[in-house]
Amino acid sequence: MEKQTLRNPKMTGMAWLTPAITVRDVDKEITFCERAFGLEKGIVLPDKTGKTVHGELKYEGSTVVMFGREGEMGNPSKSPASSNTECPVSLYIYCQNVDELFQRAKTGGATIISEPNDAFWGDRIAEFKDPEGYRWTFATNIADFDPSRMPE
Length: 152
Fold this sequence. Notes:
This protein is α/β, with parallel strands linked by helices. The protein is 17% helix and 35% strand.
């Protein structure tokens, strides 16, 4: 029996876990994330009219988030901005320098939830909200986790 060559179970450039979120306008969300967070546009797929229905953003060589347009392919999901709800899931992304990213996001139009601060688990973090209503936390690890620093 011949040995069968196995494919990698995930696509090249994809993380093992990639959030897929629903937005009103994929192109606007990608443009915002490029400007505010420095993420890079990956694959975008238009429909027959040329309107983008799927888009990907990359960071450090991996796809970190995929966007689908509201109502596409039978998806009933709405963005937090459309549904007027707070999304219970947020995106947590490590970056080289959270203080520099904070300045970029601030000038890029992100809504600031929290300025850079040192979290008890060893990350320096800053939190933002995008125009679609999703929460983004960017972090730079600055120390080892010390359980004694946990709040009571």
